[in-house]
Write a structure and sequence with these properties.
binds pyridoxal-5'-phosphate, 7-stranded mixed β-sheet, Aspartate Aminotransferase, domain 2, single chain, 4-stranded antiparallel β-sheet, Aspartate Aminotransferase, domain 1, alpha/beta
Length: 424
């Protein structure tokens, strides 16, 4: 049973979407969904679909998504961070404050540019500790960095004033939060700059954005477009996913051998840091050659033809359904118990003790669950931040993206119930 506090407020639009649900994918949705269940669906990441290219109902506008700010389209989210170091003239030895719960890719551009990165406390519910943050500000501090996790906002009104009073830059990381517009909080509006990473939400091969509050033009111009080979390489998995999703639509997917079904886990933990933590993959460290590259034309095209209204509505509806399934398990505990109006959730993040086994169980069923931010940046001593380590070691993300059909969502619900009740 789910308790009262676990019940999510679902908006009217979400309910409308729900009512259109098809019947369950499995004959016995409450029963055990085994790995070799022949009613399985394709529940991998998004691929490029016909409607991503020829979308007649696209309602994306740059002004609305990036709040009327100056936008620089970058090759990756991290390229925007490298650019900011030049734009704000951040010098070697300057201090910046960053959240201890982090991916590592957003840290490394600053490490590369010689800045002193100082972590501040994030608690076990992924909330910022403002007191701890302020206690770490010194005369050398230049910038405070805030990450809005999974589309949920931090209330940064106080921090915004604090930064103005103390002559500090405020940078919002919206890599996980594009299209998230909570009504009672602001994302990507109050910071002096914000960065975005498009492949987290859209089926695109590359791309991010750096947005600036000031009307002064960026001091660094992007002059190079990414090489066609690079984009082609990133396109291949997107095309593969499209083929798999299509094979599911025409009834072939369930006949494919298990090696096509399995959703491959990321390459985390191949090496360990000097403190013995599994290290982030080498590709997460900063590569200076991408700093001045812009987003590819294909990414710009797909972004311009996207439909944020529909994406947000679908993601919220999927989230609500899977959230309820997770609450009905012994082992999955949602990270957030409230889905505020306007939030565009990136995933369903759950805390699970035996994360590896649970992730394996879902991956074996073709579900693209991820051991979220499992690796550690090698340059830091993580001993001071047990809560961030707890999140890095225990958060599992379950897909809720816009390309899942009602049948896929039912299938993931069944898998959550099976794995979540011990049927790894
Ligand atoms: C919170 C956060 N910020 C920034 C980035 C960097 O984005 P990109 O991979 O587009 O460089 C990532 C990447 O995973 C991230 O998780």
């Amino acid at each position: 049973m789910i308790s009262e506090k676990m019940i999510l407020p679902i908006s009217e639009s979400d309910l409308l979407f729900d009512q259109e649900s098809e019947t369950s994918a499995t004959e016995d949705p409450g029963g055990v969904l085994t790995k070799n269940n022949t009613n399985r669906c394709y529940a991998g990441h998004p691929g490029i679909t016909y409607s991503d290219i020829f979308n007649c109902t696209a309602d994306f506008t740059e002004k609305e998504t990036f709040h009327g700010r100056q936008v620089v389209y970058t090759h990756k989210g991290r390229s925007g961070l490298g650019l900011l170091c030049h734009h704000w003239n951040l010098q070697s030895g300057d201090e910046i404050l960053m959240p201890s719960y982090n991916c590592g890719t957003e840290i490394d551009p600053f490490v590369y540019h010689g800045l002193k990165v100082i972590f501040y406390r994030v608690d076990q519910q992924a909330q910022l500790d403002l007191e701890d943050l302020q206690s770490r500000v010194t005369a050398k501090s230049r910038m405070i960095y805030v990450t809005h996790y999974f589309g949920w906002p931090h209330d940064i009104r106080y921090l915004s004033n604090y930064c103005k009073e103390n002559n500090l830059y405020l940078l919002e990381d919206c890599a996980l939060s594009i299209f998230s517009n909570p009504l009672d909080s602001l994302i990507g509006i109050l910071g002096d700059a914000a960065i975005y990473s498009f492949p987290k939400t859209l089926p695109v091969p590359d791309g991010g954005a750096l947005t600036l509050a000031s009307s002064a033009p960026p001091t660094v111009q992007l002059i190079e477009t990414p090489h066609a080979n690079v984009i082609l390489k990133e396109m291949l998995p997107l095309i593969k996913r499209t083929v798999l999703r299509f094979s599911d639509k025409v009834g072939l997917y369930k006949h494919l051998p298990q090696r096509f079904i399995r959703s491959r886990a990321r390459d985390n933990g191949a090496t360990t840091t000097s403190a013995g933590f599994p290290e982030i993959p080498q590709s997460y460290y900063f590569d200076k050659t991408i700093e001045k590259k812009s987003a590819s034309w294909i990414t710009r095209y797909i972004l311009n033809h996207s439909c944020p209204t529909d994406i947000v509505q679908r993601r919220r509806a999927h989230y609500a359904q899977l959230f309820e399934a997770a609450c009905n398990t012994k082992i999955f505990q949602p990270l957030f118990y409230h889905l505020p109006e306007g939030v565009c959730p990136l995933w369903l993040p759950v805390i699970v003790e035996d994360r590896e086994a649970a992730c394996y169980g879902l991956n074996e069923r073709g579900i693209a669950a991820t051991q979220w931010w499992a690796g550690y940046h090698r340059a830091f001593d993580w001993s001071e931040f047990p809560e961030a380590r707890y999140l890095k070691d225990q958060v599992l993300t379950i897909p809720i993206h816009q390309q899942l059909s009602p049948r896929d969502v039912e299938y993931i619900c069944s898998a959550i119930l099976s794995v979540g009740n011990g049927q790894f």
